[in-house]
Amino acid sequence: MSNKNKTIWTKDFILICLAGLATNICMRMLDSNLASFANYTWASKSLGGQLTSFFNIGSILMAFFAGRLVDMRGRRKMLMAFCILFAIPTVIMALIQVPGVALGARLIQGIAKGVVTVALASIVSDITPRERMNEGMGMFNLGSTASFAFGPMLGLALVDRGGYKLMFIVCAISYAVGAVFAHFIRYEDKQEKPVVKETAAESDDEYKGVWKLIAKEAIPASLNNTIFFGSYAAILVFLTVYAQEILGLTSTQIGLFYTVAAVAMLAVRLLTAKVGDKYGPLYLIVPGHLIIMTGLLLLALFAKQSYIAFLAAGACYGVGQAITTPALNTCAVLDTPAKRSATANATFYFMMDFGILFASAGFGALIDASATAEIGYRMTFLISIGVCLFSMLLAIYFFNNKAIAKRRKDL
């Protein structure tokens, strides 16, 4: 039977999808509630931002080394260990509500997340036939989609029922459950040797120095995704406050934006799972960019006049993100030798975090420097369209059939 006809839904694939779902639900609960936690506990909005910043710093630092670590020590073992490492400071945040302790806990959580994300993606890369990598990545990311829809709502419900302590405890349990699912993944046990041996990596001059930590073959896709993420960081970071301050929407109305986005993500991933494998990545990447640009335009020019336009922007955000990032992640993996898939994923996520960090900081400064907040937000969304257009043109250059064939001829 050819790889194209083999099912991707093996026991290990189902377990890694469940592990991804468990960890992502925790992440979405924290993302949507930490700012309000800081404001409620210490009456500080700036501390809420610092909690996010410390987390991103930890994630970026660890993602740089995560690929090498996961290659050398094993995907399953590292996934289990760092799921537990994430859970422990989460419990501490519930028990000791001191600002310095919370910031330290978030730094450790970021470090753990950097390894967990790479380990999850690397296991998917290992157990999915390369001819069906777009489909495998897309199906795996359904867990992220589901968590995007239900994580924030679950977090709010837990806070209403038992306060932030209960939410933190449930988050810790959720990550621990991810470790349990990882424990039963057994494909590495069937291999005669580790995915990568230290001696093999060190004997190859191509992987000396920094190239032990970075997969240079994955840089085109990773750079493209970094710019793409930067283009919609305005939505990712500023959507809620924009909707509150400029559009005058309630929390329920804003929440519907994310619900629409999640439903759109789910639908498009199910419908397009095999498109990239059959026709090539540009059949996903180009439409994804165009749809994100449409969503940004709706937010900049039409959302204030029409709530329907606001919700349509949510659908565009969901569809554009759902089909573009998995396709670029797949390109990063397929451009890289199979033995370096973990390093390819680490490169991809390491650079992606930078895109969010720098774009959000830059756009935040632009909004603060504008004559009015409304002008600042509008300029941010319009500039983001230009950034997204540049990302799309870069993708066409990197991922046309001729360029792909040239890069992969020796793999």
SSE layout and pairings?
Blueprint: H1 11-42, H2 45-73, H3 75-95, H4 99-127, H5 133-140, H6 142-183, H7 198-203, H8 219-231, H9 233-245, H10 251-272, H11 275-279, H12 282-301, H13 307-334, H14 341-369, H15 373-399, H16 401-408
Helix pairs in contact: 1-2, 1-4, 1-6, 2-3, 2-4, 2-14, 3-4, 3-6, 4-14, 5-13, 6-10, 8-13, 8-14, 8-15, 9-14, 9-15, 10-13, 12-13, 12-15, 13-14, 14-15
Major sheet attributes? none
C-alpha-based Rg, rounded: 21 Å
CATH third-tier fold name of the largest domain: Growth Hormone, Chain: A
User: CATH-wise, what's the superfamily of the largest domain?
Assistant: MFS general substrate transporter like domains
Q: Based on helices, strands and strand pairing, what is the structural class?
A: mainly alpha
**Which range does the strand content fall in?**
under 5%
Could you give the order of the helices and strands?
Answer: HHHHHHHHHHHHHHHH
Indicate the multimeric state.
single chain
Describe this structure in words.
- The relative contact order is 0.14.
- The two termini are 22 Å apart.
- The longest helix has 42 residues, at 142-183.
- The chain is mostly helical.
- It has 16 helices and no strands.
